What we know:
By secondary structure, the chain is an alpha/beta fold.
Amino acid sequence: MSISRILEKPCLDRGDLMQLLAVRGEAMQQLWKKALAVKLEKLDNHIHLRGLIELSNQCRKACLYCGVRGPNRKVARYRLTEEEVLACAQTAWQLGYGSVAIQAGERNDEPFTDSITRLIEKIKAIGNGALGITLSLGEQSEAVYRRWFEAGAHRYLLRIESSTEELYYKIHPHDGLHDFHRRLDCIDALMATGYQTGTGVMIGLPFQTLEHLADDLLFFRKKDVAMVGMGPYIPHPDTPLYAHAAQIPTAGERMNLTLNMIAILRLMMPEINMVAATANQTIDPMGREKAILAGANVIMPNLTPNRYREEYLIYPDKACVNDRPEECFSCLETRMKGIGHEILYNAWGDSVAFTKKQTKNNP
Ligand code: 5AD
Ligand code: FES
């Protein structure tokens, strides 16, 4: 079937998805253009910002791809103080970012989970609840998810990394600590708690096929998530998965695949929030812009104090590591204008898909 015929179908099936993922050249441009048109029609040219605070690189897990995995002894472990986090949040508020996203390696001890509850309450006090709060703090018990939600967090990101169990265990240790089904349960628990829940995958992993990626797209649709974050896999030399780096697609190819994933998902789920991940910009200087033009609508500028950023290198050569918040601010403004997009300041920028679903369920 020609690409134009597939793009007209109201509901894409697995075969359609695989065909679309494989398009290159003119057909690929056509796919991205259609996704951009759908996004502009449904969500306008608006970009939402989440000021990213990389709270800590302490991590109890050992994901085989991740540079800050617990067993990596080359990383100096840090944890921001409460004052440092609140200063980041103040900066976000002053710059008009509207929301912050708190990300960290995984810890689930009580001193940690309690400190997060207190932090959420204090961030909520800034500007009288002006800032939206997204958490990205890994797998936790339902009770902890609820406590953080009640304290004022309202979005949560937990990437499934791969929706195929077999691939999941090729990129994570197969032990009690890394459990595919527990991860699925966590996503369900987050949705049941009431969070705008986001998930996502890495693209261009060793062992990953187009079938896996098509199934990831179907997984996002089946779960009816509010947000998705996807980015290219970037091999990190101090991780076990690096041994397979020679067999992954080239950076250009991983970029094309990522943009195709974003564009296809925009067609499948027109009103979700989709982030233009920093990993895109790391493998291509225009990666973030390209992601926006293929259907993404959220950017997460980094607010972490610069002296800690070198220690939060999930993957090498991360973009913007040396930029100060004010620099990122004006850089983003110019870059987004340059591609005909407008940053919405002082707004939470909730997922339209989520808001509509909530109104439907509680009229
Ligand atoms: N390359 C790209 N993305 C990575 N992540 C972790 N390690 C890498 C890597 N080497 C992503 C994971 C995780 C998110 C915080 O960063 O998807 O969920
Ligand atoms: Fe814990 Fe990556 S393995 S943050």
